[in-house]
What does this fold into?
Amino acid sequence: MKKHTIGVIPGDGIGPEVADEGLKVLSAVAELEGFDYELVEYPYSGQHYLDTGELVPDSAIEEWKGLDAIFLGAIGHPDVEPGLVERSVILGLRFGLDLYVNLRPIKLYSENLGPLKGKGPDDIDFAVVRENTEGLYAQIGGALRENTEDEVALVNGIYTWKGCERAVRYAFELARKRAEQRGADGRAPRVTLVDKSNAIRPHAIWLRALEAVSKDFPEVETDHQYVDAACMWMIKDPDWFDVVVTTNLFGDIITDLGAMLQGGMGIAASGNIHPGKTSMFEPIHGSAPRHAGKKVASPMGAIMAVGMMLDYLGEEKAAQRIDEAAGRLLQDGTIPSLGSRSGIPTDVMGDMVVAALRGEAIPDP
Ligand code: IPM
Ligand code: MG
It folds into this structure.
């Protein structure tokens, strides 16, 4: 039996609380499915930086390359310069491990979780493939004469053929896989490219990548939207989408919108993936410092991220079990909403998922 070695970075704010619940569910599902794993914890966070002055050292990135996966809670501390630790840990992982896909499923489990009138689980079930190592996140640029009237700020969007091609290819492969899972009666697979190639002409590289890769996937429909229109269509006709592929920044933005469609930041999960290499899984929410320590944060995003991680590690049945157990609790209203309004303490929500997994009585909130 293969043993999975998983790095854990609990992080800041609500990160450690939600990560604990994710690990609770991991332990329960490992017992049910009979797989083995080992956890290696890492301290990198805003708090660790304040305590020691240390950010993520190059040696940690090297060490992570030897793990099977990494599970991250949340990073960000109000007393640290904005973005410093996020760039070190989150972007450090994405760039350092070349995790070129940020996969963000958008799935509404129950109509009453979502904000759109009349839209239910049949209408909202798609996935965003966000390019994760280039674009405006490449950190190529800088500032000159800062804090003067003559200040110049420069940021370059980087789009390589290799970077676009591999993200687009991943999207097509995912569309094919999702169609297989839907079966013969399900709808046809579709990849929608979201860019801004009308105003930002170099974005046309994405269109060329779409066209080139689509030749290898004749059964997959292709479609193209500018990002402003995509925001409109995500609200107006979310059922149109199957797999979306887009740039790093646009993916960041439209997946917060997507998180709202599925019931909020309390459930949205993501995988930072390089097929075959150490990949990293995290809820998409931040560290929400003002909610920390109060047991009001929803652990569902972290739990769903564990599900995605297990799917990536080849434990598909375990991943499916988590999806079904969480889905049941959301569909039957046991968990009526995600976030502080639910009235269910963080740890109790984790216990509920564990009970649902085991087929035991669900604890009271
Ligand atoms: C996300 C976050 C990060 C991003 C931040 C924390 C750097 O918003 O994972 O979506 O911009 O990618
Ligand atoms: Mg974001």
Summary: The two ends are 37 Å apart (CA to CA). Residues 252, 256 surround magnesium ion (ligand 2) (CB under 6 Å).
